[in-house]
Amino acid sequence: MGYFNLEDYETVEERLIKFWKDNPEGRILTTLLDISVTRFIVKAEIYRGSDLATPWTTGLAEETVQGKGVNATSALENCETSAIGRALANAGYAT
């Protein structure tokens, strides 16, 4: 069974740079699927071209509002970034 090695982790920003280099006409859409006082669910859709109607890949993320850390002040932003990161990983943009 594998394990997570932080040294091998590519940030979403690093994956986005690679995606935009490979797909300069691509686009990324995000949709807030659920919002409540304590949580957010976001879906990200990645398209290889600006004229395509069907996403190449998607990603979902859920974040819970916490009393400390990044989710204390930025749970929605963190959720959107996570959804984009999942979609990019599903497209092969991950180590």
Would you mind describing this structure in some detail?
The chain is α+β, with helices and mostly antiparallel strands and 95 residues long. It has helices at residues 12-22, 70-73, 75-90; strands at residues 27-35, 39-47, 57-64. A three-stranded antiparallel sheet has the order 1-2-3. Strand 1 and strand 2 (39-47) form a beta hairpin. The longest helix is centred in the last third of the chain and has 16 residues, at 75-90. It is globular. The model has no long low-confidence stretch (mean pLDDT 92).
Give descriptors for this structure.
alpha+beta, 95 residues, 3-stranded antiparallel β-sheet
Task: Please write out the topology.
Layout: H1 12-22, E1 27-35, E2 39-47, E3 57-64, H2 70-73, H3 75-90
Antiparallel strand pairs: 1-2, 2-3
Helix pairs in contact: 1-3
Elements, N to C (H/E): HEEEHH
- The number of helices is 3
Derived structural class: alpha+beta
State the helicity in percent bands: 25-40%
Most strands sheet: 3 strands, antiparallel
Tell me the quaternary state.
Answer: single chain
Distance between the termini: 16 Å
How would you state the average pLDDT, rounded?
92
For the largest sheet, list the strands in their spatial order.
Answer: 1-2-3
Radius of gyration: 14 Å
**Which percent range describes the beta-strand content?**
25-35%
Q: Which parts are unreliable, with pLDDT below 50 for 5 consecutive residues or more?
A: none
Number of strands: 3
Coarse morphology: globular
Q: What is this entry, summarized?
A:
This protein is an alpha+beta fold and 95 residues long. Helix content is 33%, strand content 27%.
